[in-house]
Design brief:
Elements (H helix, E strand, L loop, with lengths): L7 H30 L4 E7 L18 E9 L14 H30 L4 H8 L3 H13 L3 E4 L4 E4 L2 H11 L2 H17 L2 E8 L2 E8 L14 E3 L5 H6 L3 H9 L13 H14 L2 E4 L6 E9 L5 E10 L7 H19 L45
Antiparallel strand pairs: 1-2, 3-4, 5-6, 5-10, 6-7, 8-9, 9-10
Helix pairs in contact: 2-3, 2-4, 6-10
């Protein structure tokens, strides 16, 4: 009778199978530990697959079921995954840099043009220094504008000046009402602050013309309308006459002056002296000079060249303007005119008066007294203005 004890070959065949089966949970635990230790932290799932039916081995033992390790993308709750920064969009960055460069070039070009308007013909070194940009950048921009006739280079004298193209733009700006549109917010602010109607007038030839009105009180007001012409020697028109060219003043005072009311001044000597006083004070208060029973408080408006291009005034019936109200309103009118001048590019530093008096307007740069001379000793001509 044969012995039923297993042979040595069968025992050796069973031992590797036992060691392999016992080692599998350890391997799965090691893989799970290594995956969890890495970031970002993920869940590890062990999925048991059903072993296919196979015939038993020689010793009658079946193989252990296989295990598959799957890594799930869902983070473990409470774990902090590292922040991943997006890559820099180089195209967007280049586009932003190009936009900034274009904006800088436009600002420099406008600074050069405004400087030429203030100083007149000047050399490149003086112009670039006054505009606050380098000579190379200034030269490139000036050449571009020269190609389109916005500036002119006097090569024989080495001077740059504004081109004739600006006359077309100035005429278009005037026809399109640029001055009135710019002034309207300031007229509205002054009218709402004082409760009176506010007017903006300009000199048109030998007369003054109303170009903008802000009507605060439609029930009680001084009658006028946009486009209405008025004399230069009487009322608020005298403010514009005081800052008009000398030839215009001489022509106005040389003719016979019309009397509109008993208060109208027609003596040329008195008017000439008053023009000097207006330039010294920087404001004008009149009563019943053109329309009886009206009072006006007027202040000058300057543009980027320093020229007086308009007069801003409050006009009201004298019943509402008993003394000392006109002088009490005068600082507000002067301040509103100064703000409008700043919006037009004026560099005046004149503050609003507070005691009813006013020093002569102080101008910086080219407007302190006489126009300065260039580096070549040439006298600078009167600057150009796009407004009438």
């Amino acid at each position: 009778m044969k012995s039923k004890a297993p042979t040595a070959r069968k025992i050796a065949a069973k031992k590797p199978m036992a060691r392999k089966a016992a080692r599998k949970p350890v391997v799965a635990a090691a893989v799970r530990k290594r995956i969890v230790s890495k970031r970002p932290v993920v869940q590890v799932a062990v999925v048991k697959k059903a072993a296919p039916k196979k015939p038993a081995t020689m010793n009658g033992a079946a193989k252990a079921p296989a295990r598959t390790v799957k890594i799930l993308a869902k983070p473990v709750p409470g774990a902090h995954a590292p922040e991943i920064k997006p890559a820099v969009d180089q195209a967007a960055r280049d586009k932003e840099l190009a936009r900034e460069h274009a904006t800088t070039a436009v600002n420099r070009a406008l600074s050069l043009l405004e400087t030429l308007a203030r100083t007149g013909p000047v050399p490149l070194a003086v112009l670039s220094d006054a505009a606050g940009c380098g000579k190379t950048a200034a030269f490139e921009l000036l050449n571009t504008m020269r190609a389109r006739n916005f500036v002119i280079q006097d090569e024989s004298r080495g001077l740059w000046r504004l081109g004739a193209r600006w006359a077309v733009l100035g005429s278009a700006a005037s026809e399109q009402g640029a001055l009135a549109a710019t002034a309207m917010p300031f007229l509205a602010a002054l009218g709402n602050a004082t409760g009176e109607n506010v007017y903006l007038r300009i000199r048109e030839g030998m007369e003054c013309e109303t170009v903008a009105i802000y009507q605060t009180d439609p029930g009680l007001r001084v009658y006028t309308e946009v486009g209405k012409k008025m004399p230069l020697h009487a009322g608020s028109g005298r403010m514009l006459l005081a800052f008009a060219p000398e030839a215009v003043q001489t022509q106005v005072l040389a003719q016979r002056l019309q009397r509109y009311t008993p208060s109208t001044r027609t003596d040329p000597s008195w008017i000439a002296a008053d023009l000097h006083r207006i330039r010294q004070r920087g404001f004008l208060i009149t009563e019943s000079e053109v329309v009886a029973g009206t009072v006006s408080v007027c202040a000058p408006v300057r543009d980027a060249s320093g020229q007086v291009v308009a007069a801003m005034l409050i006009g009201s019936p004298s019943l509402r303007m008993r003394p000392p109200r006109p002088r009490a309103l005068m600082p507000s009118v002067v301040e509103a005119a100064r703000k409008l001048s700043h919006a037009l590019g004026s560099i005046s530093e004149q503050p609003a008066p507070t005691n009813g008096t006013m020093e002569p307007p102080r101008q910086t740069g080219a407007f302190s007294g006489a126009w300065p001379a260039t580096a070549l000793g040439a006298a600078i001509s009167r600057p150009h203005s796009i407004f009438r």
